[in-house]
Amino acid sequence: MKPANPAQPRPGSSDTLTAGIRVQAQAQIVESETDPERLHWFYTYRIVIRNEGETPAKLRSRHWIILDANNQREDVRGPGVVGKTPRLAPGEQFEYVSACPLRTPWGTMEGTYTFERDDGTTFDAAIGRFFLVPPSKPVAHA
To answer: At CB < 8 A and 24+ separation, what contacts does 119-125 make?
Structure first.
């Protein structure tokens, strides 16, 4: 019997495991909010954070690194995510959706979530790089 192929991340997604915390990201463009004439591309992204470890952890803060197609960098830091600081016991997960506007048609996002264990120790869980990219259009043949 042939072993199953590991799941390959789709374009616009990432899946990263750090210290028992799995962070999965999936982005998509919102065509109705995108206006290339105004240099405005609008993406939403869904994040799933799952505690696959053996000890609880509370999400304290976030740090996003956003790069557009011109290599312009924006760092976004703040407490929690979407106004929440979830505490995840082993096996629990937290999901949220947020958005990112860009001045170029594509870009990337990556970063870290800082977590705190019940004993007060902290660690950074990686958010793997994922692409903010519009779907490819079929090529017309002459």
So the answer is: 122/60, 123/18, 123/19, 123/57, 124/18, 125/16, 125/18, 125/19, 125/21, 125/23, 125/49
State both tokens at 94. Answer: 């937290």
Compute how many other C-beta atoms are within 10 angstroms of the C-beta atom of residue 68. 19
Tokens of 141: 């043949």
Dihedral sign from CA coordinates of 26, 113, 64, 77: positive
The correct CATH number of 13-132 out of 2.170.130.10, 3.60.21.10, 2.60.40.1470, 2.30.130.10 is 2.60.40.1470
pTM of the prediction? 0.87
For the chain, the domains span: 13-132
Per DSSP, the three-state class of 11 is coil
pLDDT tens track for 18-76: 999 999 999 999 999 999 999 999 999 999 999 999 999 999 999 999 999 999 999 99
Residue 11 has pLDDT above 70, yes or no: no
